[in-house]
Design goal:
globular; about 425 residues; binds flavin-adenine dinucleotide; single chain; six-stranded antiparallel β-sheet; alpha/beta; about 20% helix; 15 strands
Length: about 425
């Protein structure tokens, strides 16, 4: 007679604003568009999120993986979350909560899997696990609340001075403080100053361009490859806050750093692993880190094959062109795709993958091969199409191979 009324409980998905680095990966990954952002925060709409977890593995910081049991009618709204500086304390639920509702996603009824435009199961293009032999990555050692101060020990341009593409090689030293990193990881930079709302700028992410043992082996330092942003993605004039700050740094300046980030875009750690590296522009940073890791152990006999597909408009816009061309040909198989070189036909990385189909397929057939794609967002589709074409031509079923590559942590994308 006097049994308490059942309480409708929601497992609400939240993003920790203190750890999130606003990289947009979750918003791009979410198959039901439940994630949105303003200039302050990335947040999850409790009315749309169906708890599919697609956004969790790609998040480089783990800030996405927060869940609160909430009375559904008291769920935190998008507006509330946008104003947060930190996650609120956990609330205790009235008892008894309705058992069967506890794990129910917010919008399972509102968004049936068969609804138009809603994927029943979300399959990302790349793997959400690292290669089996990858070394253990450390993440989030330094956060927005506890950044570390690094010293600038080098900053120079690595693209031709006469080109529009101003890309810098920047070396940061961490002195006595530990900052363990792996090739393929990134760090966050906190640019000084305030945004248009008067809040501190959020961190920007940059891939490491140096291997785990430092830009200079044995030193506690690392390098970045930073492109000065002077126009937005649509080509209109824009002043990139962090890239301009970084490119203008002088030796002995200090920088606030957070991270490291990333636990999947990592290189295999076992002997004779082959790497296929496909990149454009500053997407070359992680490829430089991995190549340098191999170069430093060139005499050990442990290296597998390295195959690089590198795209830029012209040779002079290719970061690290000079040092790259000095590497021995039997150490790395270099394929340069130039799209605006005078007197030459336009070539893109996907064209060269097709040109080198036989060698690419031979490597793909070897379970010791991992593939890394980094650079402009738009390159993903072209690269996937080219990989599909070359494998189909060789009589293999791409959908099966693609699945294997993803499952075994052998195909990785980092595009921005
Ligand atoms: P903002 O002030 O944030 O933006 C200014 C304007 O430029 C905005 O309109 C914005 O939409 C547009 N814009 C933002 N980024 C770009 C861009 N890349 N090209 C053109 N327009 C842009 N960048 C590197 O240079 N090197 C790296 O190694 C690198 N690694 C990254 C790794 C990851 C995982 C991610 C997510 C991003 C990476 N980035 C890298 C991009 C970097 O984090 C910044 O987004 C970039 O430097 C622009 O920041 P900003 O503060 O200068 O521009």
């Amino acid at each position: 007679m006097n049994a308490p009324l059942p309480v409708d409980v929601l497992r609400q998905h939240l993003i920790d604003p203190e750890i999130c680095i606003r990289c947009n990966t979750c918003e791009e990954t979410c198959p039901v568009d439940a994630i949105t952002h303003d200039s302050n925060n990335y947040v999850v709409d409790p009315d749309i999120c169906n708890g599919c977890m697609a956004c969790v593995p790609p998040c480089p910081t783990g800030s996405i993986d927060n869940w609160r049991l909430m009375v559904r009618s008291e769920a935190y709204s998008v507006q509330e979350q946008l104003g947060w500086e930190e996650l609120p304390k956990e609330k205790s639920l009235p008892t008894p909560a309705v058992e069967s509702d506890v794990l129910a996603p917010a919008a399972d009824a509102a968004l049936p899997a068969s609804a138009p435009g809603v994927a029943a199961t979300f399959t990302p293009a790349g793997a959400s696990v690292p290669p089996w032999s990858a070394a253990h990555p450390y993440v989030n050692l330094y956060t927005h609340k506890t950044p570390m101060t690094a010293n600038v020990v080098g900053n120079y341009r690595v693209t031709g001075a006469d080109t529009e593409s101003d890309i810098h090689h920047i070396v940061l030293d961490f002195g006595e403080l530990p900052f363990p990193v792996l090739e393929g990881q990134s760090i966050g930079i906190l640019p000084p100053g305030l945004d248009a709302q008067g809040r501190p700028h959020h961190a920007r992410q940059y891939s490491l361009a140096s291997p785990r043992d430092g830009e200079r082996a044995g030193y506690n330092n690392l390098s970045l490859t930073v492109k000065r942003v002077t126009e937005d993605h649509g080509g209109a004039a824009a002043h990139g806050v962090c890239s301009n700050y970084l490119c203008d740094l002088a030796k002995n300046d200090t920088v606030q750093v957070i991270g490291p980030f990333g636990h999947t875009f990592l290189m295999p750690n076992h002997p004779r692993a082959n790497l296929i590296m496909i990149c454009t522009g500053t997407g070359s940073a992680p490829m430089r880190a991995m190549t340098e890791r191999y170069r430093r152990r060139i005499d050990t006999g442990e290296n597998g094959k390295l195959m690089l597909f590198f795209g830029a408009r012209t040779e002079r816009e290719l970061p690290y062109f000079g040092p790259l061309m000095k590497l021995p040909r039997d150490f790395i198989d270099i394929n340069l795709a130039l799209s605006r070189e005078a007197g030459q036909p336009k070539r893109y990385v996907q064209d060269l993958i097709r040109d080198r189909a036989e060698q690419v397929c031979a490597l793909l057939a070897d379970r010791n091969t991992c593939i890394y794609v980094c650079g402009l967002k738009g390159m993903e589709v072209g690269v996937l199409d080219a990989l599909r074409d070359v494998t189909m031509q060789s009589g293999q079923d791409w959908s099966i191979l693609h699945d294997v590559l993803r499952r075994e942590g052998r195909l990785h994308f980092e595009t921005y």
